[in-house]
Please model this.
Amino acid sequence: VVLVEDNLMPGELASVRREGGRLRCASRGHVNVHGVVRPRWGSSTELPGGDVGGAAGFVQGVGLHDNFEVVAPLTTGGLGHWWRDNAVPGRPWHGPTQFAPGTFSAAALVQSDSGHLEVVALRGGELVHFWRDLMHVWHGPITIPSGGISGQPGFVEDHDGVIEGVSENRQ
Model:
């Protein structure tokens, strides 16, 4: 499960989780129960296509429509990219767009200050980096010097614009 705070709906959360080989998205809003406002998870939506074979990365983009962006390993190989169009009624999901050669087990995702989507993914026992430019073209892989990596990578951009990838377990 990957969780973000939805900046279009202040105080609400959104999650993407893998159920078997599929991804599902759900939101947690607030409901009034007998005069008491309580948080409650709503129904979930299945993301289209693509059998997922590993842990996903999830962000809410910053920009014109603050779309949701997801990258996850595909069982058929490579990584898949999905996005939810937050600018239209019904907020439909699109994808997956397959990119990246190889077999992956997990991915982490950020949107950099430059507006690029940036991915750190676990391939075998190594971390690799991909980025998508403003024309929606994916670049990479760029191998991050590492070895014996396992677990779910994490990925943050520091306030000075430096991007750092971290893995949960290093042997």
In short: The radius of gyration is 16 Å.
